[in-house]
């Protein structure tokens, strides 16, 4: 990777990408970042040794522009940016909801755009980054995008029509697991355990279950059945989960997340 990459709107996701690029061996001189607040820019300069520039400068100086502002801020960013982006740049959007066509309408004709939905495990190099090409993005642009996201986890290409679902499952996915861990830790308190003890047990159960899911290749039903002894403890809990409609709640929850992603298509509020 010899080209300059700029991260525009370097918040949580943007910073994680900067740190991933540097850990993957990209020299700090080839990474530019932009921030809205001067104190944030100073923090990023100090922490990573990268150059901070304004959005227009980033567009002129970098070959690849990664846009990591909130969907609601994308309109303002594009107004600032679009006049300075030539069609030989690659524009990667990390925003939920906003389609590649929205960017293509605002950028110079023919500018390649790639949409990526990553997730916060980007911070521990365990992200899933789901990638779709816009209408002018070629195989080479997709490979360049994968080169940026592979150091921070796995990548998967999908048709853009699947991106709102990917946002519901994968982009938001870690939050559902954190929510479960939080609720299960509370259950430990209810059962009389000290919070720290309950948290240690539940987090390790989550890590163990995750590694089994990823590395065994077994279907989750099979893994759950292996825990569920006849007339045992697990089935007593599963009955309560079914009685409370937890499976149906997951279906509705992810559908709501997908719908919200669709609503964000035009940088919606
Ligand atoms: N958080 C998550 O789990 C995931 C988020 N995403 C997507 O990633 C994007 C970023 O999310 P996240 O990192 O959580 O959000 P953050 O709010 O942490 O980061 C966005 C950053 O953009 C800055 N910003 C806004 N407008 C401008 C501008 N015009 N010029 C320069 N900087 C600007 C903000 O500045 P300021 O600090 O001043 O507000 C902020 O630092 C969103 O589009 C979201 O949909 C995708 C996958 C997962
Ligand atoms: O909640 C959100 O809108 C962002 C996108 C996916 C995860 N977080």
TrEMBL record:
Subcellular locations according to the entry: Cytoplasm
Start and end residues of each Pyrroline-5-carboxylate reductase catalytic N-terminal domain: 4-97
* Family recorded in the similarity comment: Belongs to the pyrroline-5-carboxylate reductase family.
Write down the HAMAP family for this protein, in alphabetical order.
Answer: P5C_reductase
What Enzyme Commission number(s) appear in the record? 1.5.1.2
Alphabetically sorted, this entry's keywords are:
Amino-acid biosynthesis, Cytoplasm, NADP, Oxidoreductase, Proline biosynthesis
Query: Main localization of the protein?
Result: cytoplasm
One Pfam family assigned to this protein is F420_oxidored
Can you provide one Gene Ontology molecular function annotated for this UniProt record?
A: pyrroline-5-carboxylate reductase activity
Annotated PANTHER family? PYRROLINE-5-CARBOXYLATE REDUCTASE, PYRROLINE-5-CARBOXYLATE REDUCTASE 3
- Domain Pyrroline-5-carboxylate reductase dimerisation span(s) in chain numbering: 160-264
Q: What NCBIfam families does the entry give?
A: proC (TIGR00112)
| Gene of this entry | proC
Question: Which EC main class describes this enzyme?
Answer: oxidoreductase
The record, for InterPro entries, names: 6-PGluconate_DH-like_C_sf (IPR008927), NAD(P)-bd_dom_sf (IPR036291), P5C_Rdtase_cat_N (IPR028939), P5CR-like_CS (IPR053790), P5CR_dimer (IPR029036), Pyrroline-COOH_reductase (IPR000304)
Query: Which pathway does UniProt place it in?
Result: Amino-acid biosynthesis; L-proline biosynthesis; L-proline from L-glutamate 5-semialdehyde: step 1/1
Q: What reaction(s) does this enzyme catalyze?
A: L-proline + NADP(+) = (S)-1-pyrroline-5-carboxylate + NADPH + 2 H(+); L-proline + NAD(+) = (S)-1-pyrroline-5-carboxylate + NADH + 2 H(+)
Function, please? Catalyzes the reduction of 1-pyrroline-5-carboxylate (PCA) to L-proline.
Name-wise, this protein is: Pyrroline-5-carboxylate reductase
